[in-house]
Specification:
About 30% of the residues lie in helices and about 25% in strands. The protein has 8 helices and 10 strands. The protein is globular, with a radius of gyration of 17 Å. The protein is of the alpha/beta class. The strands form 2 sheets. It has a 7-stranded mixed sheet with strand order 4-3-2-5-6-10-9, with helices on both faces. α2 packs across α5. Bound molecules: S-adenosylmethionine. The site of S-adenosylmethionine has 22 residues, from loops.
Length: about 260
């Protein structure tokens, strides 16, 4: 299944402000199929970067109370956090994605794509962690699904936080992007780890019949958005010459500690 195009011609353009209620119609399965139906080497790369950040999250040697923001129809960020989390809050805005995640966590047998991504996570956690073949039962136990907006995150609530393709993929407004990054950075206690993946230089993406906005982002603008709220910021970027998936032609991965 493809998330691009539609039988009626061009996809309709949603408004670019986040407060567009089209999130309620977000086609979770179409999104999953288009973005994660066929694993791409960039996904594995993002996983390794996220796991490196999670492995070094303080305090070491303990399990943390963590959050993932804008999880969407994707378990990858949860897989990356799971080995360090005794509790993992899933903070997602679209009702359709919450329902999809509930169903995904209720499955007896995980999809082959999740097996692939989980194996990349397992390898990246070696040699310190010996992880089970199937993460779903533990994920089910530790995940708490919350329907909420990034702009309404509580402050200083969690010990570490992840966010994959959310703050820059929910708006094309610089002020909203900055507010989303600020809310994300401030939901973690001082010294807590922040790890976030962003679309690089995207101008939006299509999911089935609808287009969604994105803010075209450079490494510098991602770092600038976090600089007032985080220390030790490090960014890695991968740029692809051609679009790999709708709106995706590379990523920026940012880590830091909440100030
Ligand atoms: C591009 S998708 C990313 C999904 C997933 N994290 C991934 O890595 O593929 C953007 C996600 O942000 C969610 N979202 C939209 N507005 C939001 C808001 N105000 N607060 C939190 N999440 C929001 C969408 O429902 C969607 O799941």
């Amino acid at each position: 299944m493809s998330a691009e195009g539609s039988s009626t011609g061009k996809p309709e353009r949603a408004a670019s402000r986040n407060a567009d209620d089209r999130w309620a119609e977000f086609d979770s399965e179409a999104y999953f199929q288009h973005y994660y139906g066929e694993p791409h080497p960039d996904d594995d790369c993002v996983i390794r970067l996220a796991v490196a950040a999670m492995k070094s999250a303080l305090p070491l040697g303990t399990e943390l109370d963590m959050v993932d923001v804008g999880t969407g129809p994707n378990l990858i960020s949860l897989f990356c956090a799971l080995p360090r989390a005794h509790r993992l809050t899933v903070w997602e805005y679209a009702e359709s994605n919450i329902t999809w995640l509930e169903a995904e966590l209720a499955r007896d047998v995980m999809r082959p794509q999740w097996s692939h991504f989980w194996n990349v996570v397992r390898e990246a956690y070696l040699p310190e962690f010996d992880l089970p073949e199937d993460p779903i039962p533990i994920l089910r136990e530790r995940c708490h699904l919350r329907r909420g907006s990034i702009f309404d995150l509580p402050t200083r609530r969690w010990q570490a936080a992840t966010m994959f393709y959310c703050a820059e993929s929910i708006t094309d407004r610089q002020d909203e992007f900055e507010a989303a990054c600020a809310a994300f950075a401030r939901c973690v206690r001082r010294g807590g780890t922040l790890a976030a993946a962003f679309l690089a230089r995207s101008t939006g993406y299509a999911v089935n019949e609808s287009c969604y906005p994105a803010l075209s982002l450079s490494v510098e603008s991602a770092v600038d958005a976090f600089a007032p709220y985080a220390d030790g910021l490090r960014a890695e970027a991968v740029a692809r010459e051609h679009q790999v998936r709708s709106g995706y032609s590379g990523f920026i991965f940012l880590t830091g500690t909440a100030r």
